[in-house]
Amino acid sequence: MAEAQVPHEGTEGAQSRRQQKEGALYAGRVKVHPMAIGGVFRKLKWTALIVLLGIYYAVPWIRWDRGPNAPDQAVLIDMPARRAYFFWIEIWPQEVYYLAGLLILGAIGLFLVTSLLGRVWCGFACPQTVWTDLYMLVERWIEGDRNARIKLDKQPLNGAKLAKRGAKHGVWLLIALATGGAWIMYFQNAPTVVADFFTGQASFSVYFFVGLFTATTYLLAGMAREQVCVYMCPWPRFQAAMFDEDTMIVTYEGWRGEPRGKPRKGKTHVSPVELPAQTPAQRSQPGLAAIDWERANELYGQDKVDGLGDCIACNKCVAVCPTGIDIRDGVQLECIGCGLCIDACNSVMAKLGRPQQLITYDTLANQDRRARGERTGIRLLRGRTVLYGALMAVVAGIMLFTLVTRSSHDISVLHDRNPLYVTLSDGSIRNGYTIKILNKAREPRSYELSLQGLAQGATLSVIGEDDPMAKRASLTAEPDSVATYKVYVAVPGQAVDAQIQEFAFLLQNAEGDTVRHETVFRGPKQ
Fold it and tell me: N or C, which end of the chain is more exposed by having fewer CB within 10 Å?
């Protein structure tokens, strides 16, 4: 049997890591030149890119009728009006907890997906990945594939090189400009801001933020690329905490790939998956290849079998990797789980007539089982996945309940601080309050304000109302607005038996829906 070869470390991104292993205190960046490859995972990435970019650029142009004097953009974060619109949902500033809930759902969902499927977010849906894929596509169209780009980098600056580089960076800047422009459209009416932008009538903030997002997209997707994933993004540092032996990841079947070597003339290659299994005692040891080479020589002819695994050390898996790593070295922080190395390896195995999925999307537990010749399977229900799923269900349920049951009006109350109370000529104690009524409806509303929890003789008066002292007050609020009123509450002096007394304002609309706001009534020290 041929001697096992030392696993080969990647040719580009891994070069700097080799320098560090050799004792260098600093290793500069080695530019990665990913090679184009076709296959299942490449098609999935193109599909994700088209769908996600289509959503990003198209959503601001979707219209949604909310009635008169209301924006008709389906998704809009209106900063001046302090509103967020998501189709039929309108979020007010005091409802920012919905945003917090969405962020919590997103985080838990990411934990769940990572524990089940590995880094699919990083490989297919992360904005950095999506725009970098688009930028690399433009680069290949203009400068050529991997070898052509490497050759172009080494050439001295001349007219042809300058023309290609200028065209590439020009297209990159146009994509970045479209990216920044589309982002601004989520905060202002899309048709209006586009017209104002190109006619020079937009505000300074519009031009500033378009320029900011243009610059960041150009730098991150065009220049930084894999450095964002490896050094800037915090997710790779703790995503391994969501992994276990049953998490689906991109992995190399070392048990059938080793030892590596080029095809040998005069020798017969037999894939390890086709060779006899080891003895039961050997098969029970995790990680051992299910191979009996001596028995293989008996079956296929003495010294006729090359004794090599399926990996021919072509390094095509490294050449296509967008971060320049060698997946054969095992699970690594730099791997974004895009699966392009699987497509590359499958294309080589198909040409050689060898079994595919040498690099595969599988669990570590299945790798051990397959190496021992045992039955494989995917275990979805595990402690962490059940926990993440339950947390998502709870958070989503709470958000849905509060959204369905939320009132179309609300009230806020601010007690006067100076003075805290006033003693009237008849001995009554009066407190002042500023009341704000939030009308979320698209039509004017009438409300009735009353007191709860004070002595029977308590009265309220609203500045500007006809009845200065009453048990209840009729108030109004304009559509989709906040109405502010100055309200005084008076309690007979003999009924004030505590320095601080709790009570509540009740606000009821014409339909009978009531909201309650608790506050305090202050009096002299007893």
Answer: C
